## 1
Amino acid sequence: MAFYNTFHTVLVLTLAGVLTAGGYVSPSISHAGGVRAGYETTFTCKSANCIPQCAYSWTLKGRTFNGSALAWTPGGLDSIVRLQCDAFNTESGSSRSIVTIIEVTNPVSVRPSPALSLPVLNQSFILDCTGSFPGLPVLWYKDGQAVAPDASLGLVKHNTSLEFNSLLTSDSGFYQCEATMATLAQSKVISLGYLLSFDHWSVSISGPDTVFPGTQYTFTCKTNCNINVDCSIRWPLRGTILTSTYFSVSRNIVKWIPIVPGMVQNLTCVVENTAFGRFAEVTKAVKIKGSTTSGSEKVRLSGVIQLIFFVGLLFLLDS
Ligand SMILES: *[C@@H]1O[C@H](CO)[C@@H](O)[C@H](O)[C@H]1NC(C)=O
Ligand SMILES: *[C@@H]1O[C@H](CO)[C@@H](O)[C@H](O)[C@H]1NC(C)=O
Ligand SMILES: *[C@@H]1O[C@H](CO)[C@@H](O)[C@H](O)[C@H]1NC(C)=O
Ligand SMILES: *[C@@H]1O[C@H](CO)[C@@H](O)[C@H](O)[C@H]1NC(C)=O
């Protein structure tokens, strides 16, 4: 597969106005906004060591560029890149460098349509190139090879969808699309992919269906995917309020002490591999025994709100 990263450097020599006496001061790399595949981001390097001036150079993906500013349009293949800036003081001969790790988001992905539908042998199946621009060219790849449409395989709606009339075992593979972005440069972006497979991930939650307030329970999300290798696990709260004096998440295990009797708490476990577009989830409804709430409930609930916020953060960090 070809690389579609377009590089060009803009030479803007920056005279840093700050002089630091002695000591090593790293240059700094700055850029505005998030870094997205298909969109140009300009990185600027500045160093306090550049009096009267520096020659700047950048190292990105094994290539070197000159200038204090670097404009880069990621092509979708990289989700994380290492960017290094070296500032070489032409007068003093001293050099300073800094490395930053950049996370690139990809706005284009291959997803089944309707969402969450699963491929079944001998049945029709549709993949969408989401984030593509209708009317602009879209190409499809299976296991890195261009997809040639035939009688059983249709490209519909400006190639934004790939339609299988009747799935065959030979259709298994890793599908990606390449979209043309509606930017001035019309850069091309290789999407996140979708692994079309007839072996599905199964997912279930083990643990009690009914629980008592004030007791700690353990729920385990069981799946046939290889956790932290093929898939990652998340326990989204889905807007429901989790009332608890204690709640902890460690990968596929949730430990929970319920407090409000009479409530039904849904626990959802999601197993996914976002890079492969694979996903499975299950929800278990857990009934909390008992009926009345005590007078001290309000006080304890205010503590619970903070806990929920904390748990929400845990999910963010986990995912
Ligand atoms: C970058 O600058 C160095 C030193 O001035 C020079 O040798 C090199 O050819 C330049 N590279 C490019 C790609 O302009
Ligand atoms: C799919 O179709 C083929 C031939 O049309 C048949 O032999 C096979 O049993 C079918 N498979 C399923 C899972 O329906
Ligand atoms: C649609 O895909 C076919 C086959 O890859 C390609 O030849 C054609 O140029 C594409 N058309 C557009 C509008 O992207
Ligand atoms: C729990 O899940 C069920 C379906 O599984 C749904 O009907 C119900 O509304 C959910 N309850 C809450 C509080 O989200």
## 2
Amino acid sequence: MKRVHNFSAGPATLPLSVLEKAKKELVNYRDKGASIMEMSHRSPEYTEVNEQAAQRLKRITGADDDWDVLFLQGGASSQFMMIPHNFISADKTADYIDTGSWSSKAIKEANLFGNVNIPFSSKESNYSKVPGDGELNHSDNPVYTYFTSNNTIFGTQFQKEPGTNGSLLVCDASSDFLSRPIDLDKYGLIFAGAQKNLGPAGVTVVMIRKSFLEKQVQSPIPTILNYNTHITKLFNTPPVFAVYMVNYVLEWVEEKGGLPYFEKFNTEKADLLYNEIDKDGFYRGTAELTSRSKMNVTFRLPSEDLEKTFLAEAANNDLVALKGHRSVGGIRASIYNACEMESVKALVDFMQDFRKNNG
Ligand SMILES: *Cc1c(COP(=O)(O)O)cnc(C)c1O
């Protein structure tokens, strides 16, 4: 069996050990004569999976009892609507930091429900940076401060949490959740679509602080869109197979050594790539140096023709899914937790050869 070096931005590569485990159990889960996909979401088997996944997430992130873990559907994009629906209204303002396409989509939805203040936007520089200290123009009393911790498309990442003017943070961590330790005290809600760093597509992990829910709006919220509906019990059928896979990815995260391990591992991988990019003028990083992402490494070549050749030759060497998003162009290497060091080394070797032959 041959597996490619997969740099897909999402759905992204998964740990091979997790895939193998699922394969083994696929048609006959724990000798029950049925797949976990074919069992009731209220069965003892699935209940154990769901609870284990939630407990593991709390352990990995260091969350206390004020936190709840929800496994929701509708993708990370549904949270763009669900968050403002629950927390803002015509007389309540939230601050939204605009650092890319995903933030601006969230801002569009928030505008449907309440007041939105934008303390910072890097739109004019094609989202090549995140804000530095002192660059945020907050509103007086924001209900929350919203940010996208890693900008998957533009290859930028907050190196630390932004200021909040006294509010709690709400974070779209879809593309860097569990890639490094997190200071949960600063957060009210964190969400992540699983398909980048946590598992397969189909489930969105939402961590929510119960005390933050006290800030919920008084106006009616449709039942399924109200966070309270999902706390303490399963309201409807969760995406059982996706949660089952996430549970095994979380087990793998713990076995590897948790968030400190992944921070070090991801830094090593990103350093290897950026060192190669910065060697001379042939490759050119698109993000400002202090905003560079350790998850999505974006760069250009001297011409679009060379970029096309680069992608084609890379694919011939089993280095796949390296095409940048159309709004940035060029090359994007997504190197999430499950991307092996071996894959990054193979890419760097290829980049060296390509420069030698074309530079
Ligand atoms: C991929 C992505 C999304 C969208 O996720 P869906 O599950 O497709 O809705 C949102 N935010 C960020 C940061 C992403 O990388």
